[in-house]
Amino acid sequence: MIIDFTKMEETVIPAFKGGEKEMRAKMYADESNRIMRCRLIPGASVGLHTHEDNREIVFILEGGGKAVYDGTEERLSAGMCHYCPKGHSHTIVNDTDADLVFYAVVPQ
Asked: What percent of the chain has pLDDT over 70?
């Protein structure tokens, strides 16, 4: 199955999970997974949240920034994968001067 994000419309989500500015995302979802191609502009963030019933895999495509995972800061750059298991908390922050682009997969 092909999921062609280049043909999807980008959705603007203000203050996603209580974060700063906005996240732009192209999204696919079915009964098993939510797959998103996301973009955070400089200064934008995904708010701190806990994965109570699921987990999240974040693969960085372009740019950089940081994840704060259970209170510990982790630097992110293209090619890296950040994982937040069930029961843990994280936030993603673009603290650079370029867009941070990533895929996020949330198994349901």
From this structure: 100
